[in-house]
Amino acid sequence: MSKESELKKVKRTALLLLCGAAATFVFTLFFPGNFWLSGLKAIAEAAMVGALADWFAVVALFRRIPIPFISAHTEIIPKNKSKIADNLAIFVQDKFLDPDSIVGLIKKHDPAQIIAHWLYVPANTELLGGYLTKIVRAFLGITDDQRIQAFIKKAIHAFIDKADISQSVATLLDSMTRDGRHQELLDVSVKQVLKLLHQPSTRLYISGQIVSWVKREHPLKAKMLPTEWLGENGAEAISEAVGTLLDDVAADRGHALRQNFDRAVERLIEKLKNDPATARKAEEIKSYLKNDDALNTYVKQLWHDLREWLRHDLESKESVLHSKMAAAGRWLGDTLLQDVHLRESVNRHMEEAARKMAPDFAEYLTRHISDTVKSWDARDMSRQIELNIGKDLQFIRINGTLVGGFIGLALYLLSQLPHWIEPLFL
Fold it and tell me: How far apart are CA 202 and CA 209, in angstroms?
């Protein structure tokens, strides 16, 4: 049964009770009064009063009742549409979207664990992978549009124009060199070079380069000297010398090479920050990135090839991207399930994000609720409210009729009380 049918049914019930009370009242008018008939009349009168009063109260919410001096206070919902919109928006903001409520919701439900359990199910990670590949496919379709391509190009150029390359690199290097962090990078580089020098292939390459140099620069000497022997021993000597130097650098934190490295980095940072020539060079790099035809053609072709590979992969039943996304989802789910501290950290970050974002989000949503309700037609809004809560309001009429009847009976019995107790005082 539809809401409208249910509302009509309850309205009929309320109307039938009112008609029944009115018919009973009219019936009592045609017979001489006695105790029982007068009591019935009193019940009918009170029931009619209760029914009519509650009918007025309910109808006045939705429609105008053309009674002089009273009609101004009817049609309450349509006349107060703007107030209802604002108050509804404030209610939603204060009771549902305030930061404490949202943070409390996060603490209560532990969303990190919910996400972990959801991702633990293979079917869900496959579903997630499918959604993500659809998003990527849609993005690739958008980038085919020439207007979108022009917009992206314009946005990239705007970003390059605003970027201060020299200052950005200087800030990055400042961060990297703070507390001697760049020395750790040097240590890693030294270890890698030492490892490379000890590989036979490296020494064979150095030996080959020495032999080639001797033959190219000193062809006559190359014919008389044992070039292969020179190459092998030269490679050995070079490797040993470089290895010894790097071992010394690795062992000595105050080595001259480390100090030179510090000074070189400091000079570079200073030039990036204050040297006009370096700043001009950075501007030239920006101009090159934006305007060089060869570079832009290369980047465009590279993006085209990447896009075609992605499109072909996404259309395949055995999509690598889809499987990687699903695998990443499973890994995240397993990691969250096994690491309690990680879940706590994720929840804590969610709470912090909620506290920061909730006010802006609440303001936007409440404004949207208020504007949407205000844009509705007043009559239609009143009709929708009546369809949704009118059934319960009609029970007010029904209850008013029944309660009125009981009150009428009680008052009638009270009115008869003096007649019953009078003989006791005679």
Answer: 11
End-to-end CA, the chain: 64
Burial degree of 49 (CB within 10 A; 0-12, 13-18, 19+): middle
Q: How far is CA 145 from CA 138, 140, 274, 304, in A?
A: 12, 9, 43, 13
Check residue 63 and report its DSSP letter. Answer: S
Q: 311: which residues sit within 8 A by CB, 6+ positions away?
A: 137, 140
| Measured distance CA(122)–CA(272) in Å, rounded | 51
**Percentage, residues of the chain above pLDDT 70:** 88
pLDDT tens profile 56-76: 888 888 888 888 878 788 888
Whether 230 shows a pLDDT value over 70: the answer reads no
H helical segments located in 121-255 = 122-143, 146-162, 165-177, 181-197, 200-217, 219-224, 227-251
C-beta of residue 124 within 8 angstroms of C-beta of residue 334:
no
Q: Give the global pTM.
A: 0.52
- Do the beta carbons of residue 51 and residue 401 sit within 8 Å? yes
Report CA torsion sign: 215, 221, 222, 228. negative
Structure tokens at 85: 């919109």
163 φ, ψ to 5°? -70, 130
Q: Are 367 and 89 in contact (CB under 8 A)?
A: yes
pLDDT of 158-174, one tens digit each? 887 877 777 777 777 77
> What pLDDT does residue 45 have?
92
Instruction: Say how far apart CA 368 and CA 85 lie, in whole Å.
Output: 10
The dihedral sign for the CA sequence 240, 241, 247, 248:
positive
Mean pLDDT, residues 230-243: 68
Q: What is the DSSP letter of 384?
A: H
C-alpha 49/C-alpha 71 separation (Å) is 19
Structural tokens at position 185: 């990078």
